[in-house]
Write a structure and sequence with these properties.
40% of the residues lie in helices and 23% in strands. It is an alpha+beta fold. The longest helix is centred in the middle third of the chain and has 13 residues. The chain is globular.
Amino acid sequence: MQQVLVGKKEICNFVRRSWKTIQEWLDTRGFPAKKINGVWESDGELITQWRRRQITGDSEEAVTPVTGRRRRTSGSRS
């Protein structure tokens, strides 16, 4: 089931961290949140998947921090 998180407060409550920490993760670790029409939004399932990758170090795909777009980390091309 999808859990849409709307606003900084909902996102902070879900991850149990301050907005300052989340901003750092947005800038450096590809945290899955985006400002849409002036309101921050995210998805609980995406955050859970992101956390698992952070914990396990599993990164078949890495997320570029600035754009949030996925890029392959291996040298192979499809």
